[in-house]
Amino acid sequence: MSPFTGWRAALRIARRDAMRAKGRSALVVAMIALPVLGVTAADITYRSVDSTEAEQLTARMGSADALFSDPGMGPLQQMPDGNGYDIAGDEAPEGEVPPVDMRTAFPRGARAISTQSVPASVTTAYGLTNTEIVEFRTSDPMARGKIDLIEGAFPRGSGEMAATKPFLDSSGLHIGSRTTVNSAGRTYTITAVVEEPADLKAQHLYADPGAVIAPWRAAADRDKKVLPPNTGSTEWLVSGSGTAGIGWGDVLAANKAGALVVSRQVVLDPPPDSEVPMAQSENGYYSDDSAEASAALVTVVAMALLEIVLLAGPAFAVGARRSRRQLGLVGTCGGDRRHVRAVVLSGGLVLGAIGAVTGVAAGLLLTVACRPLIEDWAGQRFGSLLLKPVELLVIAALGLVTGLLAALAPAIVAARQSVLESLTGRRGVRRGSRVLPTVGACVLALGVAIAVFGGTGGNTTLVAGGSVVAELGLLACIPVIVGLLGRLGRRLPLSPRMALRDAARNRGRTAPAVAAVMAAVAGSVAIATYMSSSLAESDQDYMPMLSQGTMVLSSADAETAERLPLARASVERNMTVTGGHADFSRVWAGSDCNVYYEDENSCGSMELVKPTGEGHTCPLNTKGAKELAARLSSEEHRRMMRSPACMDEYLSSGSFSSESNIVVGGPDLLRTYAKLDDPAAAEALKAGTPVLLNQAYAKDGEVTLKTVHTYNAKDEKNSKLHPGPARTSTDRLKVYVADAEYAATPGIRMILPQRAAERLGLHTQPSGSVYAVPHPPTDAEEQRVSAAIDQAGGGLWLQTERGPGDRQSTILLILTLFAGVVTLGAAAITTGLAKADAEADLTTLSAVGAPPRVRRSLSGFQCLVVALTGVLLGTAAGLVPAVALRLVDLRKAMEAMRKEPMESAFTPIVLPWETIGLLAVVVPLLAGVLAAALTRSRLKLARRAG
Known about the structure:
Elements: H1 5-20, H2 22-49, H3 53-61, E1 66-69, E2 76-78, E3 85-87, H4 102-105, E4 111-123, E5 128-136, E6 148-152, E7 160-164, H5 165-171, E8 178-181, E9 186-195, E10 204-207, H6 213-222, E11 235-239, H7 248-257, E12 260-263, H8 264-268, H9 290-322, H10 324-332, H11 337-369, H12 371-378, H13 389-416, H14 419-424, H15 435-457, H16 460-485, H17 494-505, H18 507-541, E13 550-555, H19 558-561, H20 564-574, E14 578-588, E15 605-609, H21 625-631, H22 634-641, H23 644-650, E16 662-665, H24 667-672, H25 679-686, E17 691-692, E18 702-709, H26 716-721, E19 727-734, E20 736-737, E21 750-752, H27 754-759, E22 763-772, H28 779-792, E23 796-800, H29 810-837, H30 839-847, H31 853-899, H32 913-933
Helix pairs in contact: 1-11, 2-9, 2-11, 2-13, 9-13, 9-18, 9-29, 11-13, 15-16, 15-31, 16-17, 16-18, 16-31, 17-31, 18-29, 18-31, 20-28, 29-31, 29-32, 31-32
């Protein structure tokens, strides 16, 4: 007899059973198909986003055969891909190298178009904005692939432009709108919306060659007040004659003329090294991270398989328990345990195959449907939807194998049942094993120890391995943890008490679902914790240019300062500001270095002298700093770095263009910018006493101000008032010393009253205003103010502190959603299994008069128990790798700090409370509510077996 005969029958039984129990089968297929779908979509997306070399060349040079440029080196030699190049010969050419006449470098019969960019200020629907204008004939066929038309018609003339969609969205313009390039004095009509496939977020304008730069240069020649265009280098897209393209011989000929060439034909089919002069002297290096990447890939795949097995295994147990009588009949017809196992395993094979095929197909369709969204998120177009059949087959095979593995444990359990138990529906009682939890606890402790040891030793491999071992140990402990849940329900109402006791009695179905939730939540919490901690670290290292929640309007010189009133009115009219403006003035000694910077030693200086000693000198930036750093912990180093004495060493000068970070201002500047709302400080300024924000400069309540009054001969007004040699003075000033926290105020070290500056013989000039704003200005607001400033004569600029970056994280959101979906799915599976197991108990409840709502509430609490237990255990398990990896980062940071004591060693561990809150509170409650809502409150009474 063929060994496959029994399996054929088992497969037929499994197929028919799957067709009869469509809901359960769909659930199993979904559990297998969803991870397969995700992996398939990720594989296709990764392969498609990772552009091929041919696609990268198309994005760079369109459909042209080559890209020519002039590096300004004269004759040169290059590598075939154009990334490496150097002068030809041993000696560099003397003097300035003349630009290359590209006509002599192009192959005979070739056709070329140029591309050159220039930054410019252009009008918008709201006002004025700065953008990049590219002179490039977008209508030429060679531009296809580099620039693509979305809407409208390409520019055809010197009065038309094309714009990218991000620019139009930001500026409020559209096809048919007119925009003016201010410096060129020319107005253009936007005729097309275009996109750069390699950079979908680019904000650019496109015009034909000669439409912008030439008129701008002509305007600059006519009017010296117009600055000439600051153009980039010119590049040429070249198409060879006929179908020959641009070969390696053409590249070598162009190199002799001084042109650098990136040829499509040469890059895709490079010549041998013997034909490349530069290859003889190039010794590249390659980094091989394949082993590390392979280890990470194997770990991810293994954990994904475990996740699916834990999710789908209980569902197969549902089927096995519902099919007890059928499996018993197999035994009565002469079948042994092998045949019972074969029937259950065949269910895994059938549903695994369906889930694998469904997952791969759905992943492909989902990627195609979501392609525009993925491209927008990635910021580039797919060159093509790249499919790797071998990889897709491997993914499908993993889904099939996972189905078999998920059915393995239920198959073994079903085969152990006696025929009598199967036919009567009774279940034997088994004592829980004490060996597995004991081993699990030991493995858990070992895994945590390995992870922590790897973290302190800087070994990420040990961290990964220890984290997996710890999670496996916790998995082994879950049955005992679930068993302890029953003791928590003694004083609870009926439904939660029954749910807890049911979970404890039926650990075989509760534990796998809890483990599945734990595994998913552990991964999400680990990544979220690491990202939150890294974000807190970057926030600590971020160097703000302005105080948070402020905006500064500044002028360049005395002439532009006269336009400040008009600019202030525009700001207050077009932007959301809180309160009025706080004005400040620049202060300097002698002649103004902002004006007389070209002449050496011909302007004054001003310096706030920092005392020496403890509390004044930063110990991390003096002799013996490395010895001190070797004794400091990370937290001690952080506190020292945040002290006034050290903070002054690395804080930026800010946006006040003031020497020694001293500005002239009043109490309103203290409140608005320094956030120092202290009546005593305000009174001190009114009385003519300076306010010192960095107490490290004060000694006995006084500061030392050293000024050098040097006057330039060209400064006729002041040089007549102060004839003779430069005068140096050192003044001791009584100051109001602010608390240590105000030393972190960006750009200002001391605020000097106007009368104190006059008393010291210093010069002042109104320089700008500070505003408090509830949020950074929008593009439209900035453009309106820029237009008003330009209309008033220009020369002023607006700066806003936008913080360290976007605080919203798409990755954290995706992780939370993933863990939430897995939690809901696992809880739903367990609830379904509980219904299958507890039909007799529910029938008894109905028979003794229990209200119908008890059935709903019981299902809800059963789901809540699984979800909440899994989330809490997963949170604890996820903290192990996150903390261990942060210990690795801490070790590296401490090593860097001990080499360079001024380097930050701050490596915090920050829990993602929003993610944990969603997973620990919202998701379990949602699971319970859904389970209660979707459960029928009335039960159809049936005859009890036996």
